[in-house]
TrEMBL record:
Its EC number is 2.1.1.-. GO terms for molecular function: methyltransferase activity. Keywords: Methyltransferase, Transferase. Residues 1-21 are annotated as: Disordered. This is Cyclopropane-fatty-acyl-phospholipid synthase family protein. GO terms for biological process: methylation. InterPro entries: SAM-dependent_MTases_sf (IPR029063). Coiled coil: none annotated. The keyword Transcription regulation does not apply. Residues 1-11 have a biased composition (Polar residues). It is an enzyme of class 2 (transferase).
């Protein structure tokens, strides 16, 4: 799906996952994460992110969005409790002092919840971002609402909080490909199920978290890959397909994913899937 196709943590049971999470994290950082760069840029331009801003990134993953904000001069803090392998890559990007080079000023990464980023006496955050898109799976907004509940008190009054969701399925070519995951994982997914994104998904989450909607936008984020192998690696890195791998096996998921990608294969061997993502800017009380 951090990202950020959305990283899905779909309920499942059974044997331990048969997925190399370190390899998945590296594929995410090298292939998939960049797909949402147009979204990050659009949000940062609209909010004029720059020096003097203190940004809190929820589910920051491997930190590309934070890196872009830091390059604009913002002091960034990232928090993530669901993907330690991605967070380790974020540390390589944002805290290079650990490797004998100069660290980026005012960058902090926390493995945990928003409550774990609290520092006594520190000023409040001037911007909160939640770039993980919602709108793929039933109740996928519940965790986002919980994160926002915990993060909103850490921000200044009236500070912008950015939420992101998938656009309408007819505008998101990747939607049909993602359904492969839910179809294969059905035996282990219990009450979880695919559902199309709704127009007011983000507003509903904002209201649940006590935030006031204050503008929105849409951004084209095509998913483009050098070849089918890269597309498969990139999409598998989202975590969305892990329950399907557990329910069947990686070979079966690989086969069906390649079949789903076939309509998006171009003559030069590249894969191209146009998508639209929507963002909402809400304000803290």
């Amino acid at each position: 799906m951090t990202p950020t196709l959305v990283r899905q943590q779909l309920p499942h049971s059974g044997a331990a996952p048969r997925v190399d999470q370190s390899a998945r994290a590296r594929d995410w950082a090298e292939i998939q994460e960049r797909m949402l760069v147009p979204l990050y840029e659009a949000v940062y331009e609209r909010l004029e992110v720059g020096g003097g801003m203190r940004l809190l990134g929820l589910d920051c993953g491997s930190g590309l969005a934070l890196l872009m904000a830091a390059a604009r001069g913002a002091a960034v803090t990232g928090v993530d409790s669901s993907a330690p392998e991605r967070l380790a890559l974020a540390r390589e990007r944002l805290l290079p002092a650990a490797w004998g080079t100069r660290a980026r000023a005012d960058a902090r990464l926390v493995d945990g919840s928003p409550a774990d980023v609290v520092v006594a006496g520190a000023p409040a955050y001037s911007l909160v971002t939640a770039f993980e898109p919602i709108g793929c799976v039933a109740r996928d907004s519940d965790r986002l609402a919980e994160l926002l509940d915990a993060a909103a008190p850490l921000a200044e009054r009236g500070a912008p909080v950015v939420l992101v969701g998938w656009g309408p399925p007819e505008r998101c070519a990747t939607s049909a490909v993602l359904r492969v995951a839910t179809k294969l994982a059905d035996p282990l997914r219990g009450a979880g199920s695919w559902r199309a994104a709704r127009r007011d998904d983000l507003e509903e989450v904002a209201h649940r978290a006590g935030l006031r909607p204050d503008g929105s936008g849409r951004v084209a984020c095509p998913f483009g890959y050098a070849d089918v192998d890269s597309a498969v690696r990139g999409l598998l890195s989202t975590g969305f397909f892990d329950p399907a791998v557990d329910a069947t096996d990686e070979a079966q998921v690989d086969k069906e994913l390649r079949e789903a990608l076939h309509p998006h294969l171009r003559r030069d061997g590249t894969v191209w899937m146009p998508n639209i993502f929507r963002y909402l800017i809400a304000r803290t009380s």
